Amino acid sequence: xxxxxxxxxxxxxxxxxxxxxxxxxxxxxxxxxxxxxxxxxxxxxxxxxxxxxxxxxxxxxxxxxxxxxxxxxxxxxxxxxxxxxxxxxxxxxxxxxxxxxxxxxxxxxxxxxxxxxxxxxxxxxxxxxxxxxxxxxxxxxxxxxxxxxxxxxxxxxxxxxxxxxxxxxxxxxxxxxxxxxxxxxxxxxxxxxxxxxxxxxxxxxxxxxxxxxxxxxxxxxxxxxxxxxxxxxxxxxxxxxxxxxxxxxxxxxxxxx
Length: 257
Ligand code: GLU
Hints:
Helix content: 25-40%
Strand content: 15-25%
Distance between the termini: 35 Å
Strand order of the largest sheet: 3-2-1-9-10
Mean pLDDT: 94
Shape: globular
Largest sheet: 5 strands, parallel
Bound molecules: glutamic acid
């Protein structure tokens, strides 16, 4: 049993991230379970070892201690590919050839469905013909892999995923055709996070409430893959004076500063 902090090593942690880390650590300590740190460095373009080192140094400086080795997602692609193969075998995924720009335009042009996370993909490639697929491949486009959410929900016997957040209370949300593998072959966050939380024995997730609307996706993936569901506590983000979430543009926001 453990709690965790799972930053992406794409920059220096700001005070908002550090506050979330401290809350996660305190929550684990308060019930006497382990606490681990995992580096979510799936995006190898943006992630860098120096950011990882500075993030770990900042956590240590605050007294946030973790047990065991820090696990890096970049070293665990095989696990995520295996999980994807399981879903593929059950016919619960499809190839999506849309570019980011196309996805943006498609989202803008489709009515927003209630209960779905913001920016949900409207399913343009869900029923792609074999001919169209071949045209994309001939044009050199590589597909991303998406979840067939409607079929997955049906397999699970649900229409909404419900859970009780320890901060926000009862929550019910839908699941969209979330990306499971990007079109460059890199596994996507929502898949990797459920594999790692389960394999690392994480039973308590404390993280920023920007991820609340993604939690139904993660619960559904856990159920489809036969993995346990941890408890969730989504804590409010630290905001700048302008009401936007704290970031570099708010000036001195790092521990060093
Ligand atoms: N790596 C994610 C982030 O830095 C956090 C993921 C999580 O806590 O589930 O935003």
